From TrEMBL:
It comes from Cellulophaga baltica 18. Residues 76-332 form the Beta-lactamase-related domain. InterPro entries: Beta-lactam-related, Beta-lactam/transpept-like, Diverse_Enzym_Activities. Transmembrane segments: none annotated. This is Beta-lactamase.
Length: 359
């Protein structure tokens, strides 16, 4: 106990630690959790477990895999406590080929923002203009100065979402005060500019060093028109999902602060209950959709677990995290039915098949 007290005292003196004894205990409990498996870095080794040992309904697995293939899936993985239970590639895809994350990659920017805040490079309560200077929008200065980093994470900057994906100042027009209107908007990408500016490097370099390489991901950011899109193999998305499911921890290293991730994966504002910091949240009483100002009653994906949260990308890129079941589920591929921005009817249809498999 004396050693622990000395350790905490030393960290406090160094200015690297500021939390209660209760939070110390919780963090230590996370770090020493031996039930979760982490695949080694720079290796193709990834331990598996069978659906049989989990008492899953294995007779339903062929139906799930057939459905995935029929609906243009390329890569599909289910992890349980970090180990691979299901991994399948189809439709001319394989484990070495890359695919785009689309808007599911927004959550990579969330994670990188949390790391930058941990390192003291920014605070999400800061004005965006503190880092990018004034005039990064075409809003009146007083309105621009209302927009914080957190507003970009929450999608409630108040900027117009009617001018396409280009984020030049002329296209970022004032529509409402920050915090009063939720709209799915590519302006979140300005977070990457903030991180590049405050870290005195490029966003790609910061992301690679602080996140990608630390958990053994592969992949890269590619500029596509006005979008910055992440491409990787399917296992890299699974690695990221595992990191998030373990509250930002990879083995014995806390990469993303757990307190930040807790805020990121819970309702972040009072307009769209089903949205955190670029994460979609299931089990809420209502939700908003991209390109809509309407409120829809009910849960985002009614037949999925209520505690599930998800990274959802165009044309049915899916990363589902289900804490109550210790599951991470990945789906990459072409659109299953028709083009979409994030949520689609495919989520409900796919979960019907997944539910048949699970006990």
């Amino acid at each position: 106990m004396k050693q622990l007290s000395l350790f905490v005292f030393t960290l406090l003196i160094l200015g690297n630690f500021s939390c209660s004894t209760d939070s110390i205990s919780k963090e230590e409990e996370q770090i020493t959790d031996e039930d979760v498996y982490f695949p080694p870095l720079q290796s193709t080794i990834w331990e598996t477990k069978s659906p049989e040992e989990l008492h899953w309904n294995t007779d339903k697995l062929p139906q799930l895999l057939s459905y995935l293939e029929e609906t243009n899936t390329k890569g599909f993985i289910i992890l349980h406590q970090g180990k691979i239970v299901v991994e399948q590639y189809m439709n001319a895809h394989d484990s070495s080929k890359v695919w785009y994350w689309a808007s599911a990659g927004k959550t990579l920017t969330t994670a990188t923002t949390g790391i930058a805040q941990k390192e003291g490079l920014l605070a999400i309560s800061d004005k965006v203009s503190d880092y990018l200077g004034t005039g990064w929008t075409s809003s009146p200065l007083a309105k621009e100065n209302l927009i914080t980093i957190e507003n970009l994470l929450q999608m409630d900057s108040g900027l117009s979402d009617t001018n396409g994906d280009n984020v030049s100042p002329d296209n970022l027009e004032y529509m409402a005060d920050a915090g009063t209107r939720w709209a799915y908007h590519n302006v979140y990408v300005k977070l990457q500019d903030v991180i590049a500016t405050t870290s005195n490097t490029t966003y790609k370099e910061y992301f690679n060093t602080k996140l990608r390489d630390k958990i053994g991901m592969s992949g890269t950011w590619i500029d596509v028109s006005d979008l910055n899109v992440y491409w990787s193999d399917t296992r890299s998305m699974a690695r990221f999902g595992l990191l998030i499911s373990e509250n930002g921890r990879w083995e014995n290293t806390q990469i993303i602060p757990s307190t930040f991730l807790n805020a990121a994966t819970n309702t972040s504002q009072n307009i769209n209950e089903a949205y955190g910091y670029l994460w979609w949240l299931n089990g809420k009483s209502s939700y908003h959709l991209p390109q809509s100002q309407g409120t829809f009653d009910g849960s985002l994906i009614p037949n999925a677990p209520t505690d599930m949260y998800a990274a959802l990308g165009k044309n049915d890129q899916k990363l589902y995290i289900i804490p109550s079941k210790d599951l991470v589920i990945i789906r990459m591929g072409d659109s299953a039915e028709e083009e979409n921005f994030a949520l689609s009817s495919y989520d409900t249809n796919l979960w019907a098949k997944i539910n048949d498999l699970l006990p």
